[in-house]
Amino acid sequence: MKYRHQFRVRAPLPALAEFHAQSASMGAITPPPISVRVTRAPARLREGDEMAFTMWLGPVPLKWVAHIENVSGRGFSDRQISGPFQEWTHRHTFAALSEATTEVRDEVQARLRKHVIWGAVGLAMWLGLPLLFAYRARQTRCLLESKT
To answer: Of 75, 48, 79, nearest to 64 (Cα)?
Structure first.
């Protein structure tokens, strides 16, 4: 399965890349009613780091560990090491459109688990991606555009 989303932010590419490199940014761009608690990660994510977190979908905790890969000033990937999917890789790409505007491209490739419960949880999460990424775009704009 593949999902793609893109949006523009009135913020320079270095500011956007730095924002996404902060492990705390994940909670800031996650929509309610989902709550995220990072349990293990450096404050600033770099190549080879792991980020462990729990996503609470109401009363249901989903533990997830992501490996950070392919880090550059123009993006990075996070690959699920453990979590609700059989496979999950999320590529974040940043492209400067001007000195003050950056395009963010997200591409997710995933495979559901062949499990009655986890397959259903993964499918529900997958179907919610358009809302998740719309919220992330809105929050990223709110957080970064107010600083420029």
So the answer is: 79
